[in-house]
Amino acid sequence: MRQSKLFTRVLRDAPKDEETVNAMLLVRGGFVDKLMAGVYSYLPLGLRVLKNISQIVREEMDAIGGQEVLMAMLHPKEIWEKTGQWKKLDVLFELESRTGKEYAIGQSEEEVVTPLVMRRIDTYKDLPVATYQIHWKFRDELRSKSGLLRGREFLMKDMYSFHEHQADFDRFYEVAKQAYLKVFDRLGLVAKVTEASGGSFTEKISYEFMVLTDAGEDDILYCDQCEFCVNVDIAKQKEGATCPKCSRGKLSKARASEVGNVFDLGQKYGKNFDLTFVDRDGQKQYPIMGCFGIGISRLMGVIVEKYHDDKGIIWPESSAPFAAHLLALYGREDSDNNEVREKAESFYEKLQKAGVAVLFDDREDKTPGEKFAEADLLGLPWRLVVSARSKDKIEVKRRSDTESRLLTGHEALASFMDKQ
RNA sequence: CGGGGUGUAGUAUACCGGUAGUACGGCUGCUUUGGGAGCAGUUAGACCGAGUUCGAUUCUCGGCACCCCGACCA
C-alpha cells in the first residue's frame, strides 16, 4: 500500500477527549475514528489489525472443530422473553419499530443459537456441535470507557457448544481453554485463567482470561508460584495470603483486562426453549451448552496498552496492519532523488512479490523527520529506509530496536523473511 | 446511576462583558530535506437553549456531549 494513497490522517497532538493510551495512539495514528463514547469506526489501518486478530482466532477455533456462522443481530422480542430477559437485562438495547413491533439488538446470541442449532439436532449422534461467529455486539453500558477496552459496540468472537452430557462438555471445555491460551500467545499476550462468577448465566464459576494492564477494569489475585488466579469479586482470599492451591506462593493483586471468557451454561437454554435431543437410552434430553467469548476489538486496545513507547505503537508482527514500513527519503540533489525513487520503487515491488505486507511511504513532500515520527507512531514491526545516504543498501530497523543495520536488498529481504 | 472535570478552527491552546489571538494542520508560491523545516500569503472557530445586559464566547440557569473515579457489567 502506498502511503500517498492511504485513507488516513495522523494527528500531531493527542485528542483531548481521550486519556487512555490505546485511544490516544489509535486515534492519533488514524487507526480508528470516534463517533461517540464507546463507538469507533475502523479506518483501513485499524481494520487490518481487526482482521489479523480475527484470523488468528478463526484458525484456533477451526482447529478445535468450531464452525463459523454469522447470526442475526436484530432479534425479535419473543426470544428474549423466553429467557426472561426482556425488560430485565439492563445492557440489552431494546427498540420499537414504527408499527409497534419490538426488537432487541444482540448483546450475546444464546437466544438465537439455541433454536438455530437444535433444529438441526435429532439425536446424540448429531452431537457435539460448536458454532462460532465473529460479529458486532451491542451493550447499553452505563459508562463506556478506555478507548477500545469497553465500548457499547464491539467486535466479539462468540462460540456456543452443544453436548450430550457433562463429561463431553468438560472435555471440550479443557480443549477450548487451551485453544484460548494459544490465541493469546500468538497475539503476544500472557493471559491468566481466572476463576470468576458465572454472572446471570450460571451458579458455577466461569473462567476469565485476564491480561495484566493498569488500563483494565478488573482486579485479580494471582499466585506468584503456580497458575492460581481469581477475580477479587469472588475471592475468599486477600492480597498477601498464601495460595490455596499450591500452599507455597503468595497472592498478588493486579489490575487486568478480560480478553476472553468461557462459561458452562448447563441445560439452561435447552430448558428455556424446551429443545431436546434423543439420548443413548432413547430418552429426551436437554443439551449441555457452553459459551466461549473473545473480545476482538478489546484485544486490539489491550495490545496497544502492552506494546507502545512514548513515540507510538509497537505492533507485534501477528497483529500489525503491515509487516514492513518502507520509507523513501528525499534530499537536495535531483539526481540522488531519482536514484532513491527508483531504488525504493523496485524494492517495494520486490517485497510485494515476496508476499510481504508493506506500507510504502512514497510521499515526496514530507521531510525525513516527519516520516520517521509517523513511522514510530504507526509502529509497524520493520522499518526499511531507502535514501541517498544508504547508497545501494537498505537501512533495516525493528520498531522495538534502537539500532539499524545496512543490508543489501537481498539480505534485507532474507533476514526479514526469516524473522517474520 | 453517584461524584469530579472539560466544552473556543481539522488538532492543541490563549485572552476577553465591546472586531476572538497563537501554534500545528490544509491551500498557493519560493527556499529546504536523516528525527515532526523556513519565509510570505491564505483557509477555518466560541456545544445547544433560555435569562441578565445597550451588548454574552465571557456572567446565571437549564440541557447536551466528552473524559476521569466509583458503582454496574453475559
Overview of the molecule:
The chain is α+β, with helices and mostly antiparallel strands and 420 residues long. Helix content is 29%, strand content 28%. It is elongated and about 85 Å long. The mean pLDDT is 95. The chain binds one RNA strand of 74 nucleotides through residues 9, 11-20, 28, 34, 36-37, 89-91, 107-108, 110, 139, 141-143, 145, 150, 198-201, 206, 217, 261, 263, 291, 293, 329-332, 366-374, 376, 385, 387-389.
Entry keywords:
420 residues, single chain, alpha+beta, 9-stranded mixed beta sheet, 23 strands, 5-stranded mixed beta sheet, RNA-binding
Helix and strand topology:
Layout: H1 21-28, E1 32-36, E2 39-42, H2 44-63, E3 67-68, E4 74-76, H3 77-82, E5 93-96, E6 102-105, H4 110-118, E7 129-138, E8 153-163, H5 166-186, E9 192-196, E10 206-212, E11 218-223, E12 229-231, E13 251-266, H6 268-273, E14 277-278, E15 284-285, E16 288-295, H7 296-306, E17 308-309, E18 312-313, E19 324-328, H8 334-353, E20 358-361, H9 368-378, E21 382-386, E22 394-398, E23 405-407, H10 409-419
Parallel strand pairs: 3-7, 19-20, 19-21
Antiparallel strand pairs: 1-2, 4-6, 5-6, 7-8, 8-16, 9-10, 10-13, 11-12, 11-13, 13-16, 14-15, 17-18, 21-22, 22-23
Helix pairs in contact: 1-7, 2-5, 2-7
The protein binds one RNA strand of 74 nucleotides through residues 9, 11-20, 28, 34, 36-37, 89-91, 107-108, 110, 139, 141-143, 145, 150, 198-201, 206, 217, 261, 263, 291, 293, 329-332, 366-374, 376, 385, 387-389.
